[in-house]
Amino acid sequence: MFRLCYAYFDKYEKIHDPTSKEISNLYLSELDFCFYGGKSTAFIEEQTTHVVVHSKFLQHLAEIQAINHQRPHKFHLVTDVWVEESVKTRTRQDERSLVVGLK
């Protein structure tokens, strides 16, 4: 389902710093994502296709969007709900239907 998807899970106090404190619980979403064929990355890299943020912890949203605007190949910005709904329906949901920050 998530084959060919590379996701950065925004779960740390500082972006790109896995040594910093965890501020959101995306652990189960990340496990589900990897179990269903996705690859998790510790950093937003060139091959990153998705950035997953917790639906209730959006404090890094502006910074993540700024990173995305600088990239030639954009990533999808989704919440943990996208992962949960995809697993629940056993079909990868349309990333655009669960876009973050455009409400």
From TrEMBL:
<protein>
    <submittedName>
        <fullName>(California timema) hypothetical protein</fullName>
    </submittedName>
</protein>
<dbReference type="InterPro" id="IPR036420">
    <property type="entry name" value="BRCT_dom_sf"/>
</dbReference>
<feature type="domain" description="BRCT">
    <location>
        <begin position="36"/>
        <end position="100"/>
    </location>
</feature>
<dbReference type="InterPro" id="IPR001357">
    <property type="entry name" value="BRCT_dom"/>
</dbReference>
